[in-house]
């Protein structure tokens, strides 16, 4: 089968997430990086491209030039989709340029700088009929797939309570802005948008809660804080949630929980039982019951659902980690592109890469959490867009 050809915007020297995307894309050997505009700095972009083994003429000095030049290449040579790994303020213009040039788009989250941008982008996607994906990688873990399956099959009855936490400690002091450009842009409202904590990790937590529970947030009450003096954007937040079907929830996200790494965890409770999953122990899913001992189900066991099995890459006992989960999204996205571009395979994946629906909900969540935190009104309606 032919490899799906990928271009990348952003992710050059010193960038963290670009390397993660490239490793994830390469894991199944079904995607080939053929070009890139890796930095707004010409020399940095060229050095980055050279280090990745790309020919000089496929390393561009701007994303605009890349879209133009690639669209003029023969169809069998040009990139087929663009991976966007820039700071948030560039997600929208790069995605729109790619879509208008006829290229599919896979973007890092959040989808855009603002809700209005993502709504505009949705109209463009609908008009051009191209594939759009958004990297919420945590749904790619096998045990998250298993959790979603068991909830959807009614194993826990009607869902009542959803608790999701995503706590980090890397922004706990003010020196990090000066030491790390990754921290600097996430705390800069001109690049990150209206939120740091909720925009960077809170949106992942919201997506995970909705994905596993199968429910949608309908109202929220938020308290966001900038604990480190001088910061314009939040570095901590607590959100009360109401879901359709009557479930209640709590979302906590923080970048100033000193000593924490990437403590993403989810607990879901229904009338008959509950579940618990943690990214820092990703191979295990704990099932909780009122009338018998807790059960621990493990990755790669033959009793798991088809979707969990499809997300599993290694034999039992080998950790299925962040890169593998990320790669599952890339594989799901590439499968759709392959069907569209080559007519190879089928577009019937057991799980899908998040798309424009999740993109819109993510931006709506971020903006509503900020609005609610600044308001004296307690509950704010999560409007459908």
From TrEMBL:
Domain Gfo/Idh/MocA-like oxidoreductase N-terminal: 5-133
Domain GFO/IDH/MocA-like oxidoreductase: 144-276
Domain of life: Bacteria
Pfam families the record matches: GFO_IDH_MocA, GFO_IDH_MocA_C3
PANTHER family for this protein: CONSERVED EXPRESSED OXIDOREDUCTASE (EUROFUNG), OXIDOREDUCTASE
Protein known as: Gfo/Idh/MocA family oxidoreductase
Source organism (scientific name): Congregibacter brevis
